[in-house]
Design goal:
Layout (H helix, E strand, L loop, with lengths): L4 E8 L8 E8 L2 E7 L27 E3 L5 H4 L2 H6 L5 E4 L1 H24 L8 H8 L2 E3 L6 E4 L2 E7 L7 E7 L2 E5 L21 E7 L10 H18 L2 E5 L5 H15 L7 E4 L1 H12 L6 H8 L10 E3 L3 H7 L6 E5 L9 H8 L5 E5 L8 H6 L4 E4 L2 E4 L3 E4 L9 H11 L1 E7 L3 H15 L2 E3 L6 E3 L1
Parallel strand pairs: 3-4, 4-5, 5-6, 10-11, 11-20, 12-15, 12-16, 13-14, 13-15, 16-19, 20-21
Antiparallel strand pairs: 1-2, 1-22, 2-3, 7-8, 8-9, 9-10, 17-18
Helix pairs in contact: 3-4, 3-7, 12-13
Length: 457
């Protein structure tokens, strides 16, 4: 009989949507192997109000390996801080995630430095730490098992969430622990559907962002987007789309590409005003084998699903400033998706007071973010120290989400059949609803941990 002990610490991401950070510790005799899953930013709050400035609850230098489920900042954003504070172990991610991480981390370090300065605090890491961090990355293809030490292996599977996203299965001398990261919806819009890891699962650590909700159908959301564009064209107005640079922007571009190809509206200028989204879209083009089969076929024929007539790419701040000088109708797609930073805020200052403008929210809005305040109907908002009246039409579509919804999460748990599930990465209401579903419908022992809590597996 093995004398191993396995401990799981919810260092971040418990009872919170963001800040994914989980520590597995395998103790055998006098030796402990420490493995991190994700090392993400807490998003939606200012730097000086968040846990991003606090020390890690563990010694980074003692961590042997870190695995990243995908390249969103709330899963990777504190990796440079981990390195700055002494991590020298191995770092693993799929090839697309390893290619996306430098882009996402360079963006994160700039945003954090700006927020830290505003709070009169030192930033937790620098651009040099980003470069040191990404140099540690080792790409791993899906379903390729790697051994960390004798008796401990890890295998990554397609999570169907964003390009390169993975669920991570650890086999620790026969104890199988599966982390979902963020799961994708079924069917996914741009990606193949999520894989189901083979064999019995002892412990499932599952996300619950949309654990109490169902998404509207993607086709219904496409219809709503098309109608909003058609109305903008008819009224000769301006449509703002705050969009996450990674996955959501590519989904929106591919939808507009199909609208243009079908002649659904009179072509008008569409501005992609996000340097990060531009670079991320190039990475999508580099990894067509990770996209859905029909999209692979289009790319193979030279048909770019992320480009169409009258699409304008705004690389520089000067390019961005010129957009507002151009006549309407026009569509502006810009980051950030929750309006907590990025170029979208400049356009919002200009167009939110305009009754002939519209703002379409296409993703989740964290409580406290500017996007959430607009979604909740505030008529006056503070944007970069300036009060702005909100007269523009504010609307939201939910079908473009790359996240699994309630039914998708329950279905995944039903397929993998864990003996116990820990419900994380969601607001408490969502986590509690999903936990009840897993327990009541599937008979799975479920638990909603607190941040910082350690459990003995």
């Amino acid at each position: 009989m093995s004398d191993k002990k396995i401990f799981l610490t919810f260092a971040g991401g418990a009872r919170s949507v963001t800040g994914s950070n989980f520590l597995l510790e395998v103790v055998k005799g006098d030796h402990t192997t420490r493995i991190l899953v994700d090392c993400g930013l807490e998003q939606g709050k200012k730097f000086c109000e968040s846990s991003n400035r606090e020390p890690f609850s563990y010694d980074p230098a003692s961590v042997d390996a870190v695995f990243f489920t995908h390249a969103h900042a709330d899963h990777i954003g504190l990796f440079p801080k981990l390195v700055e504070q002494g991590f020298k172990g191995s770092a693993y991610a799929t090839p697309p995630t390893a290619s996306l991480m430098p882009l996402m981390l360079e963006d994160a370090v700039a945003l954090i430095a700006k927020e830290a300065k505003a709070c009169d605090e030192e930033p937790p890491f620098t651009a040099d730490d980003v470069h040191r961090a990404v140099a540690l990355l080792e790409p791993i293809e899906y379903k390729k098992k790697i051994f960390l030490t004798e008796g401990i292996s890890a295998t990554l599977y397609n999570a169907g969430h964003i390009l390169g996203s993975a669920t991570i299965l650890f086999d620790i001398e026969g104890t199988r622990v599966l982390f979902t990261g963020d799961l994708g919806r079924n069917p996914a819009i741009l990606l193949p559907d999520a894989d189901t890891p083979e064999g019995p699962i002892d412990y499932l650590i599952t996300e619950s962002v949309y654990g109490n909700r169902q998404h509207e159908d993607a086709l219904l959301s496409e219809g709503a987007l098309l109608r909003r564009i058609q109305r903008t064209v008819k009224e000769r107005g301006t449509l703002l789309i705050p969009s996450f640079s990674l996955e959501r922007t590519q989904i929106i571009l591919s939808a507009i590409d199909r609208f243009v190809a079908s002649g659904a509206f009179e072509p008008v200028p569409v501005f992609l005003d996000s340097p990060l989204a531009i670079r991320v879209t190039d990475v999508y083009r580099q990894f067509p084998s990770y996209l859905r089969g029909e999209i692979q076929e289009r790319i193979a024929k030279g048909d770019d699903p992320f480009d169409f007539p009258k699409l304008h790419i705004s690389y520089t701040p000067e390019d961005s400033a010129k957009i507002d000088e151009l006549p309407s109708p026009k569509i502006i797609i810009a980051g950030a998706g929750m309006s907590h930073g990025g170029r979208i805020r400049n356009h919002e200052r200009t167009y939110l007071p305009d009754r002939n403008a519209a703002l379409l929210l296409v993703g989740y809005q964290t409580p406290g973010s500017l996007g959430r305040r607009l979604q909740d109907g505030e008529k006056k908002v503070l944007i970069d120290k300036k009060w702005v009246k909100v007269r523009a039409n504010i609307s939201k579509v939910g079908g473009f989400s790359a996240h699994a919804d309630r039914d998708d999460l329950v279905s995944f748990a039903e397929k993998v059949k864990p003996k116990k599930a820990f419900v994380v990465l969601g607001e408490l209401e969502s986590s509690a609803f999903l936990a009840q579903r897993l327990s009541g419908f599937l008979g799975i022992d479920t638990y909603i941990p607190q941040k910082g809590e350690q459990v003995d597996l």
